[in-house]
Design goal:
The protein has about 200 residues and is of the alpha/beta class. It has a single domain, classed as Rossmann fold, CATH 3.40.50. About 25% of the residues lie in helices and about 30% in strands. It has five helices and 13 strands. The strands form four sheets. Strands 4-1-5-6-13-12-11 form a seven-stranded mixed β-sheet, with helices on both faces. Strand 2 and strand 3 form a beta hairpin. The longest helix has 17 residues. The protein is globular and about 40 Å long. The termini are close together.
Length: about 200
């Protein structure tokens, strides 16, 4: 049986049309293509009670929660991602959360967010083993991280930049690997790990 990763979508609109659409950045398509990854489908913003049936039908074995939008702005997206995380928790599926996706992972377990300055459309260091520079496109950071997570990296202002769950195969980062011209080897390893099922 072939398994797939479901990639969350964000609300968007098309110029000249009065309709809401679900979309992802083309940067994700470009990145996944460059890594020869094609076992994914989009996770539409549907009724949350349909998520488990949708995931079972499409043999979903993991989730990529993408960035964009502040939590609370699109209630349907929030509820779909919470339902997806519940499905992943019950079945111990892999989850990668990027930016907003990492915030959702923390929020799912009761974590809270705070407003931060100096993290929007800049690059900054994180305290990983190589003190690497990452991109940053967010106005909110995790304030209280649930105890079921460990902090992997922080930025110079002590904001949490990446996390992993202590038991579940869940990982989150606040930077956008899809927006880098050349993917960092550590990000490549994490993404390939998610998609190699």
């Amino acid at each position: 049986m072939k398994f797939s990763i479901a990639i969350s979508t964000r609300l968007s609109s098309a110029v000249g049309y009065e309709e809401q659409r679900d979309s992802i950045s083309r940067d994700w398509i470009k990145l996944l293509s460059s890594l020869s990854i094609n076992n994914y489908i989009l996770l539409p913003n549907m009724e949350a009670n349909m998520i488990s049936e949708y995931c079972d039908y499409h043999s979903i074995n993991g989730f990529l929660l993408t960035g964009g939008d502040v939590i609370g702005k699109d209630i349907m997206r929030d509820s779909v991602e919470f339902a997806a995380l519940n499905h992943a928790k019950v079945k111990s599926l892999k989850v990668l959360g990027v930016c907003r996706g990492m915030q959702m992972i923390s929020s799912f377990f009761g974590g809270t967010l705070k407003s931060v300055d100096g993290h929007l459309a800049i690059k900054h260091k994180i305290n990983d083993s190589k003190s690497r520079i990452v991109n940053s496109y967010h106005n909110f950071a995790i304030d209280n991280l649930p105890e079921c997570f460990k902090v992997i990296c922080r930025s110079n202002d002590n904001s949490i930049e990446s996390i992993s769950h202590k038991i579940l195969p869940w990982y989150g980062c606040m930077w956008h690997p899809e927006r880098d011209g050349i993917i960092h080897p550590l990000d490549k390893k994490i993404i390939q790990s998610l998609f190699s099922l």
